[in-house]
Amino acid sequence: MKLRLSVCVLLLLCAAENSSGGKILVWYSDNSHWINMKPVLETLVDRGHQVTVLVPSTSLFMNSSEPSRFQYELFDVDVSFEDLEKIFETIIHFFVYEMDFMNPLEIYIKFYNLMKNNKNITFKFLDGVLKSEPIMKKLKEGNYDVLFADPIYAGSDLTADILGIPLVFSLCFSLANNWERMCGQLPSPPSFVPGAASKLTDKMDFSERLSNFLFYALQDVMIDQIMWKEVDEYYSEIRGTPTSACELMGKADIWLLRTYWDFDFPRPFLPNFKFVGGIHCKPAKPLPKDMEEFVQSSGENGIVVFTLGSMIKNVTTEKANLIASALAQLPQKVLWRYNGEKPKTLGSNTRIFSWIPQNDLLGHPKTKAFITHGGTNGIYEAIYHGVPMVGIPMFADQPDNMVHMEAKGAAVIQNLNFMTTESLRDAIKAVINDKSYKENAMRLSRIHHDRPMSPLDEAVFWIEFTMRNKGAKHLRVQAHELTWYQYHSLDVLAFLLIIDLLLIFILFKSCSFCFKRCCSRKQTKRKAE
Amino acid sequence: MKLRLSVCVLLLLCAAENSSGGKILVWYSDNSHWINMKPVLETLVDRGHQVTVLVPSTSLFMNSSEPSRFQYELFDVDVSFEDLEKIFETIIHFFVYEMDFMNPLEIYIKFYNLMKNNKNITFKFLDGVLKSEPIMKKLKEGNYDVLFADPIYAGSDLTADILGIPLVFSLCFSLANNWERMCGQLPSPPSFVPGAASKLTDKMDFSERLSNFLFYALQDVMIDQIMWKEVDEYYSEIRGTPTSACELMGKADIWLLRTYWDFDFPRPFLPNFKFVGGIHCKPAKPLPKDMEEFVQSSGENGIVVFTLGSMIKNVTTEKANLIASALAQLPQKVLWRYNGEKPKTLGSNTRIFSWIPQNDLLGHPKTKAFITHGGTNGIYEAIYHGVPMVGIPMFADQPDNMVHMEAKGAAVIQNLNFMTTESLRDAIKAVINDKSYKENAMRLSRIHHDRPMSPLDEAVFWIEFTMRNKGAKHLRVQAHELTWYQYHSLDVLAFLLIIDLLLIFILFKSCSFCFKRCCSRKQTKRKAE
Fold it and tell me: Could you list the residue ranges forming a coiled coil in this record (chains A, B) (predicted)?
């Protein structure tokens, strides 16, 4: 495996000598989306390309003043950092602490309002690029070869269209895969392709298939109501002609989906959909000295790594005590990334850190389990290193992600609002002591590593392909040119039905005509007799 | 590109050092199917694996006495070479000289009978393996890691099942993609995925979509009648339990489809379908001295390469004269592979050869056009080297293949039964003089070469993957476990329809009840008044 990796590096280095540098424009993004795009961009710079990243004046995680090998194109947005943070915290609070106690209608209404607020912010960001003459002038004069974007941050498709350059998407998922299905034409039979965030697997009984069917339908209606109508209006205003945002999205040359069959369930896909889950994964580096000493002190029992991700800094004091009590009952040493007040119940085996080198810890031979909020980046690092998980999912795709890991036998799920000290302790003990969890994690790790090309190399290949060939039209299915009823052959079926009915009608009429003739002859004969 | 290829070779060589040799059993095949499997097997031997090929005692093209690096497992079949040749010639004659003059019903009946005869031969071949105790004993004792087969030659799925080993298919296509769709669960919406051999493209108007829909349906019925019923009976007899051959076929771990988006139209597919068209393609080697002299004598006009493949040795004298007249009118020199009597009209620019090094000629810089019968192997060599084509398709997939090349702007089609000297001459002149044909051929060539991995490397990777991991179950969609109505969510739709109707009924009844109550009150009131 090492040999293959080193030859892959050689392959890229050699090709770098060959490649004539192109110009890549990167649409703004944030947090885990940006974490995933960065290694691709770093590699593109290594390979002699020039990378220019659009950065808004207000951003939670992007920082254009950091020393970097990228060029930054700053644009003004009429949103304060406080407003952005407030919206973000409201969303998190809803998902983490409110949703579990609401009925479906309340969830729908709250979610609808949150998304509506979020959309207003989206348009202010869009104004900063599309309504700014100096920015658009600069972008046009930049003569970029490709626009690279996470479509979660709207507007890249319209910008690529205006600039007349190819577009490559990097996407984890859209709700119920609405964009991939409706705009990208990705076939997704609801009978065995669970909608993203549905918390279903590919093995569904009748009621689950019904749920998934309704999940697709309801999300499609909601997204149409919340998103497409207003985005279409905005796009049409900018372009000065009626414009469908979904149609523009469907013009993307390549969709790099940040998943693979280690994490996702196998499903139908299209030639321009490439599965590059785990782009940011890499081998573990040595730990800082004091951390290594703490890890080594665990002896044969090993360690447990615990973090709820960068977006949730702390939990309530009550929850922190509950968690600390559970951790204290483990024979393992625990490294907990936590920024809150030290819990009273903290055991001597648990050490709190304000930051941990998560990937290096997950790759450490002493690591027995990973307690995670279930973000895809963390899960992918655990898959890469073959570490079983306990998931305490919080929001967005996290509950669904953990359902995937549970279905593949590599994780146990705990609910933050309903878990107890005992249930958390037992869950951690289970993934450590029941060998099947480790075996399944190692199986997923083998699937992750044993593929023709690393996800990073594959992503870089297809971005460069798009630049070299000014797009990737030969991978685009003709389905984009069909209406929904043509796609499903409903017009053909209707035609065949009409023909059938006509034939039956003619047959019926002919028979009844013959029958009448026959009867009338007999009657005439009888009368004559 | 050269650098990338050489690093690919390095990658394979290094991995060869790493790979511990496995044991590969190869199902018998013949002609172009065998040509495509051979380079894969040669590479597998290079990489330290042991390859054992099942060879029938009667075969048109396979020869176990040739010196080879493969081991051969010979099995007896109760079919004479003459019988095999006769059936083969009857099929060819029907396709080449009869079909054009028949109506659809006549074609259907003739085809049905031909396939029925062919199936009897198939069962005799199957008897040679599955009903031969010594052969089955040897195969069981062989402890093979994988069975590699072209499913056109039936029985490999049952054998893999009996031996309990993984199965990798190498397939060009099945008629109307029936096996890929019905057994492999490959999604194929008839609205934009033309059925194999339908002579349609992915751009279809209403009548073409109707044709394609009916083509799928009719072929499914015909294949069910001709094939599945009797094969199921045969398989059930061997296994001693009711067995569905299609279900067994669906258990294949990997389907290596011998096509790619240079030749085929982009379409939906599944994680265990890999597109490896052009496996046998390779750079051109220098020509024999006298042939090189003849080629060089063409000067700036260049040469035309003409062959109708290994399966059609000669055409009628009349056709040969017509072709020779057309070739005589070209300014190019022509190299014609032909084994018949020298045509009277042969021009001085045309030289006849009993055999030509086709790939080396197509890769020669002087080559301007390729006149071909439209077999996939020849077409792929032309794509590899970027040579425009004139197709004179004969039978099987050839007419459909040429429709693909015509739709992609790299070929002109001629009908052997209806072409004239002038039409053939004009077709050749068009592909040489109209620059668009060469440009399109070069575009297809770029698509062919510019992919993350060569088709040969990809095929080898997935066979080895299957051996390493004892299958590739993580790539298998859950659709295999669903009935057809579950797959299409018809049970869910029926349920929702019933609920809807019930609700409407309840609403109607409630309204009519309220209305009646309301009316009766009014009447009582009036009476009281």
Answer: none
